[in-house]
Amino acid sequence: MRTCSTPSSGKTPSKGPRGGDAGFLPLPRSHALLQYLPRRPVRLTRLILFNKPCGVLTQFSDTAGRPTLADYVPVPGVYAAGRLDADSEGLVVLTDDGAMQARISDPRHKLAKTYWAQVEGLVTDDALRALATGVDLADFVTSPCEACRVAEPEGLWERNPPIRIRASIPTSWLQLVLREGKNRQVRRMTARVGFPTLRLIRWAVGDWTLEGLAPGQWRELAIPGQPQGKRRVKARDASFNRGVNSTQPKYKFKENP
């Protein structure tokens, strides 16, 4: 590539003996030059909220033929930011951005994750204190978390398959807010304090919640600062083409005294 001179006098570079240039050509101004450069397409980060049904793996393939994310979210290039057990339900966040995946799933960032747990028995105050302050699970001690009793969420969908409840033993609901995520941690915590988990739902990851999503539905979120021309913002169900259910679920609960 030839170099160019930038004389302050504004004089035109001299020409060679045959009338050609002497190796110095003035380049167009930078903004004019940009029109000749190949344009790179703008890469848009994708962020999807999915209400995972019970029995679905948080991966896109399975050699055993079990249900996976691919059966519900037909979006190429996205991956789950963190795991949710197959027998658990609720919010899974998917993205195609590696840095965002790390911010969501890495416990070092301490992003709060809210769970609703239906447990066997009526939870005692001592059990709540133990859950909140930290539970010794032999291989590690859980970090302090938020733990409280709640009423069964209103409008909650039926689990498929249904949980097994013993007629002689009542059940109760807890809300737990954790900032770490070890394997099957919530189930191990409640079992350790004497109240095995029968049903587990992840309601929220940070400020993102399941509000408006029935099981199997997903919604693509708008990312601040990005063009939104081709971004889905409606919930989709597993058929991929029926759009939002006519009646959106609303989940509410009130804390027990």
Verbal overview:
This protein is an alpha+beta fold and 257 residues long. It has a domain at 47-220: Alpha-Beta Plaits. The chain is built from four helices and nine strands; from the N terminus they run αβββαβαββαβββ. Strands 1, 2, 3, 4, 5, 6, 7, 8 and 9 form a nine-stranded mixed beta sheet that branches. It starts with 29 loop residues before the first helix and ends in a 37-residue tail after the last strand. Mean pLDDT is 81; it is low at 1-14, 16-20, 229-235, 237-248 and 253-257.
The strand count comes to: 9
Low-confidence stretches: 1-14, 16-20, 229-235, 237-248, 253-257
What is the CATH architecture term of the domain at 47-220? 2-Layer Sandwich
Topology as H/E string? Answer: HEEEHEHEEHEEE
Please give the radius of gyration in angstroms. 28 Å
Main β-sheet description? 9 strands, mixed
Report, as a whole number of angstroms, the end-to-end distance: 77 Å
The SS-based structural class is alpha+beta
- The average pLDDT value, as a whole number, equals 81
User: What's the CATH C level of the domain at 47-220?
Assistant: Alpha Beta
Helical segment count: 4
State the CATH superfamily name of the domain at 47-220.
Answer: Alpha-L RNA-binding motif
Bin the strand percentage: 15-25%
CATH topology term of the domain at 47-220: Alpha-Beta Plaits
- Overall spatial form: globular
Q: Helical percent range? A: 10-25%
